[in-house]
Amino acid sequence: MGFQIESQISSCGGKLLKLQHESETTGTSMNVNIYLPQQYYKEDGAKIPALYYLSGLSCTPQNASEKAFWQPQADKFGFAVVFPDTSPRGADVPDDPENGWDFGLSAGFYVDATQSPYDKNYKMFSYVHDELPNKLDQFFKSTGSESGSTLDFLDNVAITGHSMGGFGAISGYLKQYASPRKYKSCSAFAPIANPSLVPWGKKAFGNYLGLESAQWEKYDPANLVKNISNKGNDVILIHQGTNDPFYKEQLKPHLLIEAAKGTSWEGKINLNLVDGFDHSYYFISSFVPQHAEFHAKNLGLI
Fold first, then answer.
1. Maximum separation of any 2 CA atoms in the chain, in Å
2. Residue 264 gets which letter from DSSP?
3. What is the pLDDT of residues 169-191, one digit of tens each?
4. Residue 231 C-beta-side C-alpha neighbours within 13 Å
5. pLDDT, tens digit, for every residue of 218-245?
6. What does the record give as the active site (predicted)?
């Protein structure tokens, strides 16, 4: 089954599409928002690359669509933005037995769960990096564009994210690094940089992946940088606010810098500590222009 277009909203020079589809990977209905920039609607046959934005704990596709202000930057450079959901949802999808907001619904952590009862639905790594891009590619090829423009959801793509989504972006980027369809670039806003060592990560990894550290290391960026070779001059861009209440206990971006020392990623992780900024969308939207330009360069748009 393809996508159902729930609504099309004019935004800046393009349109935000709110889509829904049935996922074989999660076994649930999934929502995803996509911003199609103004270039998509011009009759010049443009090829539009895609940026995947992974949201953080408690978010839906709506949050970043409304608050991050990616649309003006997408129009400026000519890329689409894909906003996946943060977890499977539904009455039969298991949630946090402790009724917390940092695990379960809205907190899928972009891993493929192996532990019952979460292993049935919580397959967010496979969903984000495999099923969703392939289904988007098929859907938009089948619908076509009156302008002659095409959307590239598979090959000329980049990835970014915030908090839990920042972890998901860096983890997915590194795990896909050697694949034929690797992301052209990766950035993150206040990512959970070493989840194996912080409360949010320990809770999520323990419940989704079990208690064996080897299973955690498969997703932890601080481990992946030690085992995946940088093939050139690829750089990961990170911004982190110094007034972020989660900075020192949950996020710890300096641990990723430490882990990269002595590896091919040393000096290739650009951590920008920005004074006075917190963890909110005020922080994210302030630095979206820098991240958009970074990705646009890597996507060949500049």
1. 54
2. T
3. 999 999 999 887 799 999 999 99
4. 8
5. 999 999 999 999 988 899 999 999 999 9
6. 163 (charge relay system), 244 (charge relay system), 279 (charge relay system)
CA neighbor of 34 nearest in space, from 22, 16, 60? 16
Taking residue 289's Cβ as centre, other Cβ atoms within 10 Å add up to 14
Report residue 69 as tokens: 């202000």
In eight-state DSSP terms, residue 252 is: -
Give the 3-state secondary structure of residue 187. Answer: strand
Q: HEC string of 142-170?
A: HHCCCCCCEEEEEEEEEEEEECHHHHHHH
Q: How many CB atoms are located within 10 Å of the residue 60 CB?
A: 17
Q: Is the model's pTM score more than 0.70?
A: yes
Residue whose structure tokens are 């940089």 = 193
Other Cβ atoms closer than 10 A to 50: 24
Q: Coil, helix or strand for 136?
A: helix
The count of other CB atoms within 10 Å of the CB of residue 146 is 7
Return the sign of the alpha-carbon dihedral for residues 191, 102, 121, 87.
Answer: negative
Measured from the Cβ of residue 297, the count of other Cβ atoms closer than 10 Å reads: 14
For β-strands 29-36 and 14-22, DSSP reports them as antiparallel
Joined tokens for residue 45:
């046959």
The neighbour count for residue 143, using CB atoms within 10 Å, is 11
Catalogue all structural domains in the chain, each as residue range(s) with its CATH number: 4-298 (3.40.50.1820)
Residue (of 141, 144, 157, 166) closest to 68 by Cα position: 166
Amino acid type, 1 = M
Cβ atoms of 256 and 225 within 8 Å: the answer is yes
* CA gap 38, 49 in Å, rounded: 13
Could you tell me how far CA 31 lies from the centroid of its own chain? 15
Q: What is the pLDDT of residues 107-116, one digit of tens each?
A: 999 999 999 9
Give the DSSP letter of residue 91: T
User: Which positions are catalytic?
Assistant: 163, 244, 279
